[in-house]
Design a protein that fits this description.
The complex is a heterodimer. By secondary structure, chain A is α/β, with parallel strands linked by helices. Chain B is an alpha/beta fold. Classes of the chains: A alpha/beta, B alpha/beta. Chains A and B meet through helix 7, helix 8, helix 9, helix 10 and helix 11 of A and helix 1, strand 4, helix 5, helix 6 and helix 8 of B. The complex binds zinc ion.
Chain lengths: ~325, ~290
């Protein structure tokens, strides 16, 4: 299902394809017409994406076809091996974790995982972890410290799962512990918001020395729908809530919540996931190269400074 | 979601506050209680033991050794970094809460002793925007942890909060990391941190500093959790089990050290602090 604002772009693309097929089949030269339409397409795409509302970005962040953690693991890293389980209760499919190589060095990867089909999404609980997911993440943080490998976390969740079982097993407790554990890492930690960065369930693996965000991802304390339901008493006001929350990549860069916005190819990452992931790989390599010379103490101090400065207050 | 309730109540409540209410109805057993009696019982219902919500100054009075308290909060004030407006501009909400409570934001505290142990005591104010954590609450907690570490004090935080403050969006989310990481200043010096969970403690407050104490105490019957009950009910489309997310439920599931009645709270807190604090042995002598 294409997004509403993508419709004119998709229609124009279809027309160009038609003309091309027609020209090929009939042996006629339509290159001038096609050229003009292609220019028009490029302009339309540029204009559409330059003027996206915040709510449209939220829709892009959720668009099917966007790279997920397992896609990134496949394209950006080599030799990935997935590791399972929290060693206490269960394996949570909403979080995947494992070891891999990134441009020659071993790294630990952990990330939220959404499905691509309804069936997969049910299996992955729509990327909403239970406590065992965060315990698995913490296990991976221990491993990163033990072997001195960088930790790379990929964030893509509407939020931690709000359910009876999750509460019984201490959802709040494990999120707090995961934030604390990640803050204590003695190795470089990079967090990337791939799609949705929903609240504490996202932050639990978001305590990086550097925090990156894909251009069309969002990150906030609450989803626009839930925010609208509470403050406007009407979930249908999500569009307004998205504006008020200032939850886009560029907003967050301005607020100092993220350090770098990773550009997505024209049309968004879901239309060109490979292009988006290649841009992410470049950004990762640059950030990692800057962190690797730092000592464990410097990394700890750097991370503390980064989060200690967050917020906006006035001292009188 | 507790925020939600608070906003609704405030909106529908009329004036007439100048008339002191002499009688209060217990929300749990519906008994009519004479207010003076309730106050004498530390705001605990004499009929059913229901713990009423406490104001922050009263909370400090109940926990700190008499005459020992010196406030340290108040200099940090909120701003409106997002120029946030929902049905009302954030600045106007803030101004109203500031006027009602006489404080800049949802936290109050300072230095004191508890059972003779030097302590930095902070209490979250549910009456101010549902005790929600924005930049000011985060900053005061981080400063509190740093000051406690610097002066060799124990840290005690009384939580009462609906969670993170939506009007500060991602910046309020970041306070979860900021407060959590600031606690490590105490770890380095072997100084104790005790968290007291009161009704209600939910969302980003539970999922950060409140859950990370050396010892976690809770008042009886307090709503404590990550997601609010309404959200959970919507998600699972089933009724919630009896007593779900109440202190006793959390104790049973291993999330708390003890559920403590308000009249025992000061003594229990002092007991724990004396055993944990490096100078606690010295204050044994001063014990009453
Ligand atoms: Zn009662």
């Amino acid at each position: 299902m294409p997004l509403e604002f993508e419709q004119p772009i998709l229609e124009l693309e279809a027309r160009i394809r038609e003309l091309r097929d027609y020209a090929e089949a009939g042996g006629v030269d339509l290159s001038d017409e096609i050229g003009l339409l292609e220019q028009k397409l490029e302009r339309l795409q540029r204009e559409t994406f330059a003027n996206l509302t915040r709510w449209q970005r939220v829709q892009l962040a959720r668009a099917p076809g966007r790279p997920t953690t397992l896609d990134v693991v496949e394209r950006v890293f080599d030799d990935f091996i997935e590791l399972h389980g929290d060693r206490a209760f269960a394996d949570d499919p909403a979080i995947v974790a494992g070891l891999a190589r990134f441009r020659g060095r071993s790294v630990v990867v952990v990330g939220h995982q959404k499905g691509k089909t309804t069936k997969e999404n049910i299996h992955r609980n729509f990327g909403m972890p239970h406590p065992e997911g965060y315990r698995k993440a913490m296990r991976m943080m221990d491993m990163a410290d033990r072997f001195g490998f960088p930790l790379i976390s990929l964030i893509d969740t509407p939020g931690a799962y709000p359910g009876v079982s999750a509460e019984e097993r201490g959802q709040a407790w494990v999120i707090a512990q995961s934030i604390q554990r990640m803050g204590r890492l003695r190795v470089p930690a990079l967090a990337i918001i791939l799609g949705e960065g929903g609240s504490g369930g996202a932050l639990a693996i978001g305590v990086g020395n550097r925090v990156l965000i894909m251009e069309n991802a969002w990150y906030s304390v609450i989803s626009p729908e839930s925010c609208a339901a509470i403050l406007w008493r009407d979930a249908a006001q999500a569009e307004q809530a998205a504006e008020a929350l200032r939850l886009t990549a560029h907003d967050l860069k301005e607020l100092g919540v993220v350090d770098r916005v990773v550009p997505e190819p024209g049309g968004g990452a879901h239309r060109n996931p490979e292009g988006a992931m290649d841009a992410l790989a470049e950004a990762l390599a640059k950030e990692l190269a800057e962190l690797e010379p730092l000592s464990p103490e410097e990394l700890l101090a750097d991370r503390y400074r980064r989060f200690r400065e967050m917020g906006a207050v006035e001292i009188v | 979601m507790a925020l939600d309730r608070l906003f609704r109540r405030r909106r529908t409540r009329g004036g007439g506050r100048d008339v002191p209410e002499l009688w209060l109805k217990c929300p749990s057993c519906e008994a009519q209680i004479y207010k003076k009696d309730l106050e004498a019982d530390l705001m605990v219902c004499p009929e059913c033991g229901h713990h009423f919500r406490l104001g922050v100054e009263e909370r400090v009075r109940q926990l700190a050794d008499e005459g020992s308290f010196e406030p340290t909060t108040g200099a940090v004030r909120p701003t409106d970094p997002l120029r946030f407006t929902d049905t009302e501009p954030y600045t106007e909400r803030l101004a109203r809460y500031q006027q009602e409570t006489g404080r800049p934001d949802a936290i109050y505290g300072g230095t004191c002793t508890v059972g003779g142990v030097p302590t930095l005591l902070l209490a979250m104010d549910y009456a101010f925007a549902g005790g929600s954590m924005g930049s000011v609450v985060g900053e005061e907690i981080a400063r509190g942890a740093e000051l406690a570490a610097e002066e060799g004090r124990a840290l005690v935080i009384v939580a009462a909060s609906g969670g993170a403050r939506m009007q500060e969006a991602a910046l309020s989310l970041m306070q979860m990391a900021k407060t959590t990481m600031a606690l490590d200043r105490l770890w380095e010096k072997r100084l104790p941190y005790v968290s007291i969970l009161t009704d209600p403690t939910t969302g980003g407050v539970t999922a950060s500093f409140a859950a990370l104490a050396d010892v976690i105490l809770a008042e009886p019957g307090a709503l404590i959790g990550f997601a609010g009950p309404r959200v959970i009910k919507q998600t699972i489309r089933q009724d919630l089990p009896e007593g779900f997310q109440r202190s006793e439920f959390l104790l049973r599931h291993g999330m708390l050290d003890r559920v403590v009645e308000r009249r025992e709270l000061r003594a229990t807190l002092a007991h724990v602090l004396r055993l944990l604090h490096p100078e606690g042995g010295a204050s044994d002598a001063a014990r009453v």
